[in-house]
Amino acid sequence: MLTVWRANLIGSSAKGNEFFLRHLLGAGDNATAEEAPPAARPRDVRWRPEAPRGKLDLLLALDFRMTSTTLFADLVLPAATWYEKHDLSSTDMHPYVHAFSPAIDPPWQARTDFETFHALAEKFSELAKGRLDTAYDLVATALQHDTPGETAQPGGRVPDCRAPDTPARPGRNLPVLTLVERDYTAVADRLAALGPLCEEAGMTVKGVTVRPGPEVRWLAERCGTDAAGRPRLDTDVKLCEAILALSGTTNGRLAAEGFDALARRCGPATGLRELGTEVAGRRVVFSDTQERPVQVGSSFEWSGKEAHDRRYAPFTVNTEHRKPWHTLTGRQHFYLDHDWMAELGEQLPVYRPPLSSPGGDADGRSVTVRYLTPHSKWSIHSEYQENLLMQTLARGGPVIWMSVEDAAAIGAADNDWIEAVNPNGVVVARAVVSHRMPPGTVFMYHVQERLVNVPKSHATGRRGGVHNALTRLLVKPTHLIGGYGQLSFAPNYYGPTGNQRDAVTTIRRRPQNVEY
Amino acid sequence: MRVMAQVAMVMNLDKCIGCHTCSVTCKQTWTNRSGTEYVWFNNVETRPGRGYPRGYEDQEKWRGGWELRHGRLVPRTGGRARRLARLFANPELPALDDYYQPWTYDYDELLSAPLGDDVPTARPRSLTDGRPTAVTWGPNWDDDLGGGPEHLAGDPVLRAMNDTVRLEYERAFMFHLPRICEHCLNPSCVAVCPSGALYKRIEDGIVLVDQDRCRGWRMCVSGCPYKKVYFNHRTGKAEKCTFCYPRVEAGEPTVCSETCVGRLRYLGVMLYDADRVGEAAAVPGEKDLYPAQLGCFLDPDDPEIARAAEESGIPHDWITAARRSPVRALISTYRLALPLHPEYRTLPMVWYVPPLSPVVDALSGSGHDGEDPANLFAAIDALRIPVEYLAGLFTAGDPAPVEAALCRLAAMRSHMRRVNLGEPQDPRIAASVGLDERSMHAMYRLLALAKYEERYVVPTTYAAGSPEPQPVSGCSLDAEGGPGMLPDEEAFHAPPSALREPAAGRANLLTWNGRDTAGLFPPRRRGTSR
Amino acid sequence: MNHPLDTALWGVLPYLVLTLFLAGSAWRYRYDRFGFTTRSSQLHESRLLSVGGPLFHYGLLFVIAGHLTGLLIPESWTEALRVSEHTYHLTSLLVGGAAGLATAAGLALLLHRRLSTPSVRRATLRTDLLLHPLLSAVLLAGLTATATGAAAHPYDYRRGVSVWFRSLFALDPDVPAMTHAPFVYRLHALLAMALFTLWPFSRLVHAFAAPLGYAVRPYIIYRSRART
């Protein structure tokens, strides 16, 4: 089951969109790619002759816009917008935290995310009695960055647990395995309370552990306690309060405790203790953020410093306080001596030519070009492409930017309908011809969706796809390295990325009569 | 000499990133209603480009602005007689196609499409006639150079250049030009209005359309060479950028300025000699118009001027504001800002600091330091954006003032670079552009740091002692079809439908629904039981 | 003795119409000055308009001038100026006829434009649906009347209709002058009265806005912000 919470997976982020439609959702798609021939198949992973389709049992979407995701979802729950709920807003690149405050209640049947998930949890817990009750789960987690797992494979040697004389050891050459007890009947209660683990095990970020005992006691008073004596988190405001209480950026006591720990590790000359002292008295509560955006303070959780007279820049704690870098050597270095890096010849940064170069085109009617999906000037992913004002300021529908030469090669004028195909799918769009495009490359800016002004494809007779219809995910083997210094997994930091480079497509000018 | 004051604007094109926030916020404030779907009081053009409406700068075709006939200024669309003779069909009026045909989408299709095996889509629908349509033009069609050389060949400034500009990948150049109404000192829109509905305000120079006096002759639309007066096809009245006068009167910046992401706009008071305006607009040589307009501006630091200003009734805090005016600094003191198309002879009051652009690779490619002042000044006329193009926009083709402005900007960069790198100062850099170190720093502070209070120096228009009679019914902008008077939020997206109810307090018979009687008769007197 | 209907039509109705016309216009000017506009649709379509608009309006100007001459200037005055009835009649027939035809042609073109251009059609007001047929009817009736003037012994309206018209302002309506006029003249007059009744409540008020003052007005206008 997949819950898409106000994101647009199917219309935006799913790289290799047609394969998502086929294998994840079991819906119709426009991919024509064939399975890899026997010679190109992996040896060490089991190969299934029929790749499963529609693996997902249930797609649940929470949103307030009709997107490809909500259209394909089995269930859509109407979500509240920003001005209809309490919430916190911040980003890591600017130094403020701010509250969302409701100007009106969510209209009609829309509910805030908080309410929705709690309602689901309530019903789920109720139904779990006598069905799921308590179960035990063996959870495998990757060897993570900033944990002892980083030292699991010294020298970058990977002891292959399939070799006869190499035992399989969790946390060494196997993932960390943990037995977890899941009381499914308690999900709702636990969602609505702050559990004991943060005090018992402490909160660890970047290898530094702090203990929020005073904060938990404070939250108990601020929010009340439940039957088990735990602080309640049964409203969105209380949850925001808890977040602010438990983060070093808004709670100087925790920041100072963390900086203290760092100072013990890195030495008194680093001035890290003093950095903590500077912020120790800061405390931001939710009502502060409701009045105005509040500046956050320096914390051991981030690599950059914050102050009233300077803006955040990453790694200033490292450079100005001589905290070692989180690498094998404690310094920045280029050379990586891991077995797998050596196998691929990438111990040092090296140029890799594109996987497949666009061939010489010109059958006179089509052109094969490199296909890029850059971020547009108005968004990274977030522009709502159905917004009439934004469409009016653009071209009114999905477009592909082409060079003058390529457009001439296929006889396409500016704003002509074109179709771009490759084995991954089909895109129908209008051409924007510009001399600022180099020949041989086209841009289809990110996330133009297919719900506005996308006709049926001339090639397939079905609706054209999103920009990601022409891409496919590739996994780079070196991104699977773990347990070796900075080459250890951390979300959004190091790990298998959504890599859709080297996409190539064939474009032709299609008949200008379109059907919707 | 008759001293008058105007709140003027300067835009620093070095900083415009073409985000169009200004366009969107202005539209949301003023023109997101029926009749003004195609209207953008503020628009941002990519240059080179055809602009909005397309090709508006071709005055051979559109005949906006003024021209000299036997040494006298006459609107290019002709004198009074011709205007009255052409009253019934203005031959120079742009068609909606020249702006663009506004459209919406069948959004409802996404919600109401029947179960099927393919994804539904919202197709475009015209907002003018309600029929399904194809999108073939928009207010920002050539954004970021979309359209290619064939299309850009329609850029009137490009066409007028002597040097051929090769629009190729290796030499591609562009910048963004945000435009609002210029609130000219010699507005041709005011001149051509047969009913006298357009006027320039004495206190702040803002040019407005009196909605009660406009009779829909639509001469102002072609009269304006910048095409910044628009016709509301629902109400039948002309509308234009109001310089957000309700905000400016309260000392607040215009919406476009306030929301500008790049912080490139400046607002400030300019004192000018109203008696010199006619003469300045009528100087024979087009290239002399820029210096002539500069000559109309008065120095508020001069005690004589200050006294004359007070005698003219300009409030004291306006004179103070004029002294601190960032617009005056950029226009008169540092001579960085230039007027847009002075050859139209309207004496525009929204000026622009031209953009610096990279020195062509030839220079730095050969190992020279591109930022070294000597090299930089020599390379000014080899910048990526041709000086001739900028001159065609800002100085009626005279490259000298553009080069001077660019040299000053380049000198500022060189000077501040030494400061940032901790190198010893070289006073020759500032001297070479006629400035000193102090003014270099002041210029830097104004342009680069651009603090809010220093960007917007707008005095209020409060005048004690003058009783303000309350308007008959609420806000004077509360007219049916007026800004903010959307009866429901969907109206912007919806295809045209039956005309709607009038706002309470004012009648509009042309759109009367036949039922509502509010505003049709004098208000009942209350409490007169005696 | 006049038939009551005749009295009503030619002795009472004109005053009602005149009152409505004046009062209505005053009311409109006071309460709906915003609505005083041409409601130009040139933005939507300008090719047909560039012919139809001037044709209709210039034709109309001449038609109005002709009406003013014919209705207000007594025959005795023109005779005193040595303009014979024959000359007058010929002039009014030819010039008036041409003007009327031009107006009708212009109106036909404008109506065709309004009906066949979707965006212009959408911009049509409800009062236009009344106004345009009425205006067309008035024009057609007037043209017909002019055409009858080409007959061998045409009706001399200056002795009939014009007399009646002027008598209205003397507050002594000459009803028989109208009852003895040919049907088409009476029809034209009735339709015209209907038009004048509709006038203040439709877009026709834009005629009052004729910008005659522009001929002598300075180009640039300054106004103070303070309400005067």
Q: How would you sum up this structure, described in words?
A:
- The complex is a heterotrimer of chains A (516), B (530) and C (228).
- Chain A has 2 domains: 238 residues, Barwin-like endoglucanases; 242 residues, Up-down Bundle (AF1104-like), CATH 1.20.1700.
- In chain A, 23% of the residues lie in helices and 17% in strands.
- Chain A contains 15 helices and 16 strands.
- Chain A has a 6-stranded mixed β-sheet with strand order 12-14-13-16-11-15. In chain A, strands 1-2-3 form a 3-stranded parallel β-sheet.
- In chain A, a hairpin with a 2-residue loop joins strand 13 and strand 14.
- In chain A, helix 7 packs antiparallel against helix 8 and helix 9 packs antiparallel against helix 10.
- The two termini of chain A are 32 Å apart.
- In chain B, helix 12 packs antiparallel against helix 13, helix 19 packs across helix 20 and helix 20 crosses helix 22.
- Chain B has a domain of 50 residues.
- In chain B, a hairpin with a 5-residue loop joins strand 8 and strand 9.
- Chain B is globular, with a radius of gyration of 25 Å.
- Chain C is mostly helical.
- Chain C is 66% helix and 1% strand.
- In chain C, helix 2 packs antiparallel against helix 4 and helix 4 packs antiparallel against helix 6.
- Chain C is globular, with a radius of gyration of 20 Å.
- Chains in contact: A-B, B-C.
- Chains B and C meet through helix 3 and strand 8 of B and helix 2, helix 5 and strand 1 of C.
- Strand 8 of chain B pairs parallel with strand 1 of chain C.
Structurally, the number of domains of chain A stands at 2
Low-confidence stretches of chain C: none
What general form of chain C does the structure show?
globular
CATH architecture of chain C: Up-down Bundle
The total of beta strands of chain A comes to: 16
Keywords, please?
heterotrimer, A: 516 residues, alpha/beta, Barwin-like endoglucanases, AF1104-like, 2 domains, 6-stranded mixed β-sheet, 3-stranded parallel β-sheet, 15 helices, 16 strands, 17% strand, globular, B: 530 residues, alpha+beta, 5-stranded mixed β-sheet, two-stranded antiparallel sheet, 23 helices, 15 strands, 12% strand, metal ion binding (chain C)
